[in-house]
Amino acid sequence: xxxxxxxxxxxxxxxxxxxxxxxxxxxxxxxxxxxxxxxxxxxxxxxxxxxxxxxxxxxxxxxxxxxxxxxxxxxxxxxxxxxxxxxxxxxxxxxxxxxxxxxxxxxxxxxxxxxxxxxxxxxxxxxxxxxxxxxxxxxxxxxxxxxxxxxxxxx
Length: 155
What we know:
Residues 1-18 form the signal peptide. It comes from Pseudomonas aylmerensis. This is FAD/FMN-containing dehydrogenase. Keywords: Signal. Helix content is 32%, strand content 23%. The protein is an alpha/beta fold. It has one domain: Glutaredoxin (3-Layer(aba) Sandwich). The longest helix has 14 residues, at 2-15. The N and C termini lie far apart (57 Å). The relative contact order is 0.23. The model is unreliable at 1-16 (pLDDT under 50).
């Protein structure tokens, strides 16, 4: 009996519904690399989600050389899922390194937010929003393509 209960609980996250085009995203709050809170609101037009270090590196490469406030000017929010990273490594090395970035990174330390938006682990998920409603979903596997897409967005 315990086995079946554990199996059911283990499969429960797989039954969670992915957000579909036309649906409104539920608001959430995360801390950035400076421990400043950000709450998803209707002003956000682009939500970038990186589920792995490789995907986060793609975002970083796409933003190299861009001025501070580049993402904010495009009403874009970047969420990095860092729950697989050992907490000590995150605290001592990764998060302090992120403080040198000239853009905000919303840190999903406990995988509370990123799993709401399923996608490939090695790609950057781009969710196009209009007043909190999902209108388009894309994935990027190269920093060059992501950079070009961001450059097409008018600040």
